Each structure stands twice: as structure tokens, then as C-alpha cells.
Amino acid sequence: METLEIIRVNLLSPLVLAFVLGIIATLVKSDVEIPEPIYKFLSLYLLFSIGIRGGVELATVSFAEFWLPAVVTMFMAVAIPTWSYLIVRSVGRMDVANAAAIAAHYGSVSSVTFVAAISLMESLNQPFEAYIPTLAALAEWGIIVGLFIARWRMGTAGSIGDVVRDTLAGRSVILLMGGLVLGLIIGEDGYAPIAPVFTDLFRGFLTIFLLEMGMVAARQLREFAKVGPFMVGFGTVMPVINGIVGITLGTFAGMSLGGAFILGCIAASASYIDAPAAVRATIPQANPSIYLTASLGITLPFNLIVGFPIYFAYTSWLHGLVNGGM
């Protein structure tokens, strides 16, 4: 019954319903459109809001609580793009450029999936660790691993330092880490006057953002025929595998149920904002219709509609097993 309730809460949440509405609006060729400046503002607001709220709470967290989940996250940032590349190359029979591009996308983090996972835990009153935004920023190093594989296997000239610099200067890392530092500095007293903006309005802005994401994802559905059955399978099976790995490692690293769930969603996600820009600049030979359709048209809808209940059910089962064993 608990699993059925999670499915109900997830599918009937404003976020998922707005996402589905965006898909429907695009498929029926509606003229609904969110202007580009508003979309960019919402993206900036959501990431910065998570960072600053996490920073305020992080002030109460000790290094002893944080270091092991951080190590686990860095391990996943290396492992996920690596095994994604190997699977796409060996099973999918793709060339190095496209396999590395896919690895970079699945090694990185979908900010929408990350924000939606946090929102779901808040709606279920499930607490999670304050350092979660830091883990999301660390997970972005998966882009670097994917692009490093491309440079190594293709013998591409140029410094990997450029890739590292561009990744660290990316929007997600700057907003999450910058907000985190700001939150640490101002503390609860400094946050109180701005809380109505960054707390009370958060879910409303996120719902509008998911409406736009539904429309963007629906535009990629037309590319399904081009990616082939392998990528459709990869885009649905790989998130589950990565999510289970993330949840398992997070649980045994001592994270709470809510924290392990969010870490699993980070691992299960595939970037379609930061990674495409980095891939276009570093691996221009890769086909955008493959990696964008996989990450945005397949994995994002799968995670939001089907994946979240699966990940939460597994997290609840594993936490019950581990805590019961103790």
C-alpha cells in the first residue's frame, strides 16, 4: 500500500501533471509557449534556491557526516560515464564520438530531475541531508569523465584542463555552489527576510518550469525512430541501474531515506542542459539527435513518471532491511 501511495502521490503531483500537460500541449500543436527569458530565469532561480537553502542548513553539518557520501558521489561520477560508454560501444555498437557523448550526458546531472526529487521528498515530509546540493555539484564531474574518454579514444588535441574549467564554470555548478556558500555566510538570520522568495514561491515556479520541460521533451519524441530500439532500452534501463547503485551506496554511506533517494535520482538522471553545450564544443562529430533524444525525450519522462516510485520503493525496502539488520 505504501508503494501504491507513492505512485499516486507522484503521478498526481502538480509537477508531473504539469509535465504531462506540456507533452499534450505540444502533441496537439497548441500555441502554448513560455518565452526563453522566463525559462532561463526559472532555471537560474531553482538552482540558486536549492543552493542557498542547502547552505543555510549545511552550517549545522559536521565533516564526519559529509565525507563518505562525497566519496561515494565522486566514485559514481567516474563509474557511471565509464560503464555507460562501455555498454553503448559494446552492446549498442556505436562509434567512439556518440558513445562518449552519451556517457557525458548520463554521467552528468539533470537539474530538473534533481529539483523534482527534492520536491517529492518535501511533499512526503521526508527529511534529507543539507549537503545534497554539494553532492549534485560533485556529480557534475561525470561530464569531464565522458569528455576525457572521447579525447583519449579519439586522440583529440587540446587540454583536458579546458574541459575542467568549462565544467566548473557551468551554470549548475556556479549556482549550486555559489548559493551554498552564500547560505553558509548569511545563516538562518540572514535567510529569514528572503525566505518568502526562495521557499514559499519555489514549488509554484517549479511547476511552471515542468510545464516547459514537458513541451521540450515532447519535441524530442519525433526523434524516436532515429535513435533505434537500443537507445530506447538504454534510456529506460540504465537510469534504473544507476539509480539502484546510487541508492545502495548512499544508504551504506549512512544517508537518510530521503537523502539516499535523492542521490539515487542524481545517479539515474541524464543532463540535457550543461552536457549538450560541452559535448558540442568538444565532440562536434557526435549526433545531437541521439544524445538529446535519449536524455531529454526518454530518460527525463521515464524518471519523473515511472522512475521515482521505483526508486522510492527500493530505498524504503533497503532502509528497512539495513535498519532491521542493525
Write a structural description.
This protein has helices spanning 2-11, 14-27, 36-58, 63-90, 96-107, 111-123, 132-139, 141-154, 160-168, 171-191, 195-200, 202-220, 224-252, 257-268, 274-282, 288-325. It has 326 residues and is mainly α. It has one domain: Na+/H+ antiporter like fold, CATH 1.20.1530. α4 (63-90) packs parallel to α7 (132-139) and α13 runs parallel beside α16.
Q: Could you give the topology of this structure?
A:
Layout (H helix, E strand, L loop, with lengths): L1 H10 L2 H14 L8 H23 L4 H28 L5 H12 L3 H13 L8 H8 L1 H14 L5 H9 L2 H21 L3 H6 L1 H19 L3 H29 L4 H12 L5 H9 L5 H38 L1
Helix pairs in contact: 1-16, 2-12, 3-10, 3-12, 4-5, 4-7, 4-8, 4-13, 5-8, 5-16, 6-12, 6-14, 6-16, 7-10, 7-14, 8-9, 8-15, 12-16, 13-14, 13-16, 14-16
Average predicted local confidence, pLDDT: 86
CATH topology: Na+/H+ antiporter like fold
As a whole number of angstroms, the C-alpha radius of gyration is 19 Å
Class in CATH? Answer: Mainly Alpha
Order of helices and strands: HHHHHHHHHHHHHHHH
Number of β-strand runs: 0
How many independent structural domains?
A: 1
Separate helix tally:
16
- The helix-and-strand class reads mainly alpha
Poorly predicted regions: none
Span between termini:
25 Å
Percent helix: over 70%
Q: Can you tell me the overall shape? A: globular
Query: Largest beta sheet, briefly?
Result: none
Strand content: under 5%
CATH architecture: Up-down Bundle
